[in-house]
Amino acid sequence: MDISLGDELFDKISSGTKTVEVFLNDEQMKHFGVGDTLAIHRKSDDEDVILTSAWSIKKCRTMVELYQRYTPEAVGMAPKELSGIYDSDTVKKQGLLAVKMKVLRPNYE
């Protein structure tokens, strides 16, 4: 699976401070599992890629539950920032997936 992130989040993954990527628990994520590879591209330079592996996937019903399990540092943003990405109605309907990542190859060429 491939995703694009802004420079700040990309750099946090590259440095090892952001270890959890959050997704809606939707159809797109239905077939994503532990051990699958996640290629993370830098939005400002699509050639800049970090390869990660999902080593844990936790379902969270709410953002409160997510932040009880993981620190804002691990998620890469504060709860208020994340609620700007995922509105509460959508989270209530679908839930969230917290994918704990292990960097396989930083800045893969």
Question: Can you tag this structure with a few keywords?
Answer:
single chain, 109 residues, alpha+beta, 5 helices, ASCH_domain, ASCH domain-containing protein, PUA-like_sf
Polypeptide structure, described:
The protein is an alpha+beta fold. It has a single domain (2-108), classed as Roll (Archaeosine Trna-guanine Transglycosylase, Chain: A, domain 4), CATH 2.30.130. Helix content is 29%, strand content 40%. It contains five helices and five strands. The protein has helices at residues 7-15, 63-69, 72-75, 79-83, 88-94, and strands at 2-5, 20-24, 37-42, 45-60, 96-108. The chain has a five-stranded mixed β-sheet. A hairpin with a 2-residue loop joins β3 (37-42) and β4 (45-60).
CATH superfamily: Hypothetical protein
> What's the helical proportion of residues?
25-40%
Low-confidence stretches: none
Secondary structure tally: strands: 5
The main pleated sheet reads as: 5 strands, mixed
Q: In which order are the strands of the major sheet placed?
A: 1-3-4-5-2
Q: Please tally the helical runs, counting DSSP H or I stretches of 4 or more residues.
A: 5
CATH architecture: Roll
Order of helices and strands: EHEEEHHHHE
SS content category? alpha+beta
Mean of residue pLDDT values: 94
**Principal-axis shape:** globular
Kindly report the CATH topology.
Archaeosine Trna-guanine Transglycosylase, Chain: A, domain 4
The top-level CATH class is Mainly Beta
Query: How many separate structural domains?
Result: 1
What portion of residues belong to β-strands?
35-45%
Computed over alpha carbons, the radius of gyration is 13 Å
- The end-to-end span amounts to 17 Å
Protein name: ASCH domain-containing protein
InterPro entries: ASCH_domain (IPR007374), PUA-like_sf (IPR015947)
Domain ASCH: 3-69
Pfam families: ASCH
